Amino acid sequence: MSTKQSRIRNFCIIAHIDHGKSTLADRLLEITGTVAHRDMQDQVLDSMDLERERGITIKSHAIQMQYTAADGHLYTLNLIDTPGHVDFTYEVSRALKACEGALLVIDAAQGIEAQTISNLFLALEHDLEIIPVLNKVDLPSARPDWVAMSVENLIGEPAEDVLAISAKTGQGVDTLLESVIRRVPPPAANSQAPLRALIFDSVFNQYRGAVAYVRVFEGTLRHRDEIYFMAAERTYAAEEIGFLRLGMQPAKELQAGDVGYVIGSIKDVRDTRVGDTITHARRRASEPIVGFREVKPMVFSGVYPSSTEHFEDLRASLERLQLNDSAIGYEPETSAALGFGFRVGFLGLLHMEIVQERLDREFDLDIITTLPNVKYEVVLTGGAVKVVENPNHVPRGNMLDHIREPYVKAEVITPADYIGNLMKLCQDRRGEFRNQTYLDQERVSLEYFLPLAEIIFDFYDRLKSLSRGYASFDYEVAEYRRSDLVKLDILINGDPVDALSAIVHRSKAFEMGRKLTSRLKELIPRQMFEVAIQAAIGSRVIARTTVRAVRKDVTAKCYGGDITRKRKLLEKQKAGKKRMKHVGSVEVPQEAFLAVLSMGQ
């Protein structure tokens, strides 16, 4: 191993949301002098306004720091920051693959959370050196001794050896840096072997194309080398390579163990897939770095412009978003109620919220989104399996045999006081209890199998409210299972409103149908004729409400005379209303769609 290679440390920070990961990254950059004091700001590595506002990391980041350790040697530290939300688990796993060590940051006031354990297990799968760190020890509510004992019970690290720091004030961060240099092993790699570099992230530059962030495992990548992307099966020239400081710093070569970037006039960010392996076009590696998989959307929703004239603007906006976020998938679709729009696939509900927010902020688009749903497997009577992302594509009648839905393996970590409430919540959402483990005297881990469709609406909000904010939640997709699912249609005067169709469990169909019909009754304006609002499963109506007709007093001009005069006028009005009901159409106002679609379940 060369002297240069022995003084490289590649590490990442893994933590639950809001445990101080980005703040710790700020302190590391400040102490190592990577960022000048005048350029310092909170969440330096979080480049999006949304990341700063929500206090979360959405996009993975990497930065190189130089640090002179207590032994007098200069070390190169490559920090690979990772997203903290369950929607981005695959990106986290690829970032961990690029490292030899991980800082496990735990809030000294809140303790171990579900996402902490999930990311810890990911790190252990990749055989990383784990350095547990208690953050926010300066808070009055901090309980460092209790949390350190929880860490000892979880991973076996002696409680007295767990580092206690405050990323906000900088307390203990110097000791943390020395621990990284002492405990994280240098990269073990061969610079003479065929090139193998892992893409752990990519961004799009409108002037230079896709920029791939890479960790070189074997071989040497030089400027202007012809390179081959093994999963994308594309060949490019490495027009610029270099290191990731606060900006990009060009270099002539990246050796085994280095973390840097590659630019090669790559027009489409989908060619630089996270997890892909880069090798030389002529002297190719025999096999790629293991672990690559296609990122597949799990949650789908219809996205429509509020005005049909903005359809092309929406298409252009989604195209531009996809340049920076290859996980977004979309295809055109038409709704009789909402007009022209797109069926968009997201990694999860947070990902969906972020995309909606970006469409509003960055492109100034006013959009309507339909109820989110998951990807179902529809088994036809002949045995063929059809994947359905839109409820309106479910076959009718005898063609359908049954529907399979995705289940997730969920873990809930909660104080023991709230076990009953949360177990009832999971059971109400058709959960299947698997395991219960006491992490310590106060905190319990509950393991359930849950249908993904049951947790994408308001499950997380209900979890937080029932536990007063103390419970945390994490999940991973496990399998598809056969369920008693039905397609629920909403009909207005006998005409189905496709934008309000949903696939629901039969046991919950009546309740949801009643809620939707009642809500629509309040929102649809009264017409000159009676409007029937129905919820139906196939041809069977399960719930109905009626918007009463606006009644004009046609007998007002009759001041007397025979009763038959009034009766004749009323009969004429009745016949007119009947004819109007047959030929008239009900215009469902935009506000009604917005109110119903935001209602969730």
Can you put this structure into words, describing what you see?
- This protein is of the alpha+beta class.
- It has five domains: 3-183, P-loop containing nucleotide triphosphate hydrolases (Rossmann fold); 196-280, Beta Barrel (Elongation Factor Tu (Ef-tu), domain 3), CATH 2.40.30; 299-371, Alpha-Beta Plaits (2-Layer Sandwich); 377-483, Alpha-Beta Plaits, CATH 3.30.70; 487-597, Elongation factor 4, C-terminal domain (Alpha-Beta Plaits).
- The protein is built from 15 helices and 32 strands.
- The strands form six sheets. An eight-stranded antiparallel β-sheet has the order 11-10-16-7-8-15-12-13.
- Helix 8 packs across helix 9 and helix 13 (506-523) packs antiparallel against helix 15.
- The radius of gyration is 29 Å and the shape is elongated.
- The model is unreliable at 46-55 (pLDDT under 50).
